[in-house]
Automatic annotation (TrEMBL):
S-adenosyl-L-methionine binds at residues 103-109, 127, 172. It holds the Pfam family Methyltr_RsmB-F. The active site is at residue 225. The keyword Cytoplasm applies. Residues 12-296 form the SAM-dependent MTase RsmB/NOP-type domain. This is NOL1/NOP2/sun family putative RNA methylase. Belongs to the class I-like SAM-binding methyltransferase superfamily. RsmB/NOP family. GO terms for biological process: RNA methylation; RNA processing. GO terms for molecular function: RNA binding; RNA methyltransferase activity; S-adenosylmethionine-dependent methyltransferase activity.
Length: 456
């Protein structure tokens, strides 16, 4: 770092003694940053490079535990350190587009993109490591994304299946993580020069796959949370030399965000100054790099979307009738589109969903629920995907006494005096999950794996 930064390195090193900033990115599918900031029981400040970003200091976060607040369980926000909010904000994903997050777990940037897409179009969130894909899928569920296909694929296999398919692709690459050493000191123990070189090789292969999947005119954002030029300016320089029809686009350099450094590349290509670096001593956040590129050349013909998927089939008329009977009891309005039945699990596929046969699918869109012998049981994902007004019946925990929220999140039965069937259990008007009211009690359907355990 001293070689790269000269005298400024001292300020970088000093920043490691400063407390880290904690970030919360508002989920625009459920609320807006002003409403959230007013409702949270602690002070936050806006993150200047992300419209939906809020941050607070580490001490406040330690006292207030925002990850344990019922608003978090309701998917109103995603905990994400402020610099990590920069890359997805730059991709420009819009409702109705086909968007890929190629290295997606645990889903910080996927949920950011999903918010920008407002439930319309196709968002493919892919993760290479199976275990991490599970956490990704849970976050997609909690934030209520309805148009997201979660996959557990290698970039190469995906590129072979979906050439020229996407309008926008985010590659938030696996990297040596130098920018996270303050947030996660253990990450420093993995660092070596050989690791940096190995990461750079992987990044090259992942970028090749991303390029193959990008449409003509499509946009690619590449990001890392490391400082090494080999994984940043030089990775983009090498990409531009492999694919001259990619053109770097200027990223915003306001609020302490700096330009990438052409002098740190092999050729000194001035266009590398259009990339962005977030340094922990210049911004309130950790270390990050981002580059944005547009594909000017001709893409291979796009794989056509397939409505019916050979990985499963649509429900039969009787099965659909069971779902519709549930819907008539529990929901206002209907959910329409292409349905997919995987075993007994019913999903609504995102629009423009590609054929799924042969792909490792973790979540094929909105999980509606499970077909039992003669009835339909809704999935937690459905409760989190709809606003309170879409439920015919609701049970508001704030009206039910101080202990009710904790009781529900622990999986306890709730007292009531009705017999209304399926209802949304809400906190402050935001659905937290399902309950089933029958003869004076509400059976708890908050998923076992998410329940609070132990003392508060
Ligand atoms: C920086 S993390 C992604 C963070 C995520 N975008 C977020 O915002 O929450 C990079 C991801 O790449 C995955 N990965 C590891 N090796 C990979 C490879 N060879 N190809 C693609 N992805 C890989 C890692 O498992 C990790 O989840």
């Amino acid at each position: 770092m001293e070689t790269l930064l000269g005298p400024e390195a001292a300020a970088l090193f000093a920043s490691y003694e400063e407390p880290k900033a904690v970030g919360l990115r508002t989920n625009p599918l459920k609320t807006d940053p002003e409403t959230l900031a007013r409702a949270l029981p602690f002070e936050t400040t806006p993150v200047p490079w992300c419209e939906t970003g809020l941050s607070c200091d580490a001490e406040t976060a330690a006292a207030a535990a925002p990850g344990k607040h019922p608003y978090h369980a309701a998917g109103l926000y995603y905990m994400q350190e402020p610099s990590a909010m920069y890359p997805a904000a730059q991709l420009g994903a819009e409702p109705g587009e086909r968007v890929l997050d190629l290295c997606a777990a645990p889903g910080g940037k996927t949920t950011h993109l999903g918010g920008a897409m407002a439930g319309r179009g196709l968002l493919v969130a892919n993760e290479y490591e199976a275990k991490r894909a599970k956490a990704l899928s849970e976050n997609v569920e909690r934030l209520g994304l309805t148009n997201c296909l979660v996959l557990n694929e290698t970039p190469e296999r995906l590129a072979a299946r979906l050439p020229g398919f996407f309008d926008r692709i985010l590659v938030d690459a696996p990297c040596s993580g130098e920018g996270m050493f303050r947030k996660d000191p253990e990450a420093a123990s993995y660092w070596s020069e050989a690791h940096v070189a190995a990461c750079a090789r992987t990044q090259g292969a992942v970028l090749d796959a991303a390029f193959a999947m990008l449409k003509e005119g499509g946009t690619l954002v590449y990001s890392t949370c490391t400082f090494s030029p080999e994984e940043n300016e030089r990775a983009i320089e090498a990409l531009l030399s492999r694919f001259p029809d990619l053109e770097p686009l200027p990223l915003p350099h306001a609020f302490g965000v700096s330009a990438g450094v052409p002098a740190w590349s092999a050729t000194g290509d001035e266009r590398l100054a259009r990339t962005a670096r977030l340094w922990p001593h210049r911004v309130r956040g950790e270390g990050h790099f981002a580059a944005k590129l547009v594909k000017r050349g001709e893409a291979p013909p796009a794989a056509a979307p397939a409505k019916k998927s050979a990985a499963g089939s649509g429900p039969s008329r009787q099965q659909l009738a069971l779902y519709r009977a549930f819907e008539a009891q529990a929901l206002a309005g209907t959910i329409d589109g292409d349905f997919l039945l995987l075993g007994a699990q019913l999903y609504r596929l995102p629009d423009e969903c590609p054929a799924l046969a042969g792909l490792r699918v973790v979540r094929p869109g909105l999980h509606l629920g499970e077909l039992k012998k003669d009835r339909f049981e809704p999935n937690h994902a459905l409760a989190l995907a709809l606003p309170a007004e879409r439920f015919r019946h609701r049970y508001e925990l704030r009206d039910a006494g101080e202990r009710a929220v904790d009781a529900y999140l622990r999986g306890e039965t709730l007292p009531s005096d009705g017999d209304r069937g399926w209802l949304a259990v809400t906190y402050d008007g935001y659905p937290l999950g399902w309950g089933k009211e029958s003869k004076g009690t509400i059976k708890n359907f908050y998923p076992k794996g998410l329940r609070r355990i132990g003392a508060l």
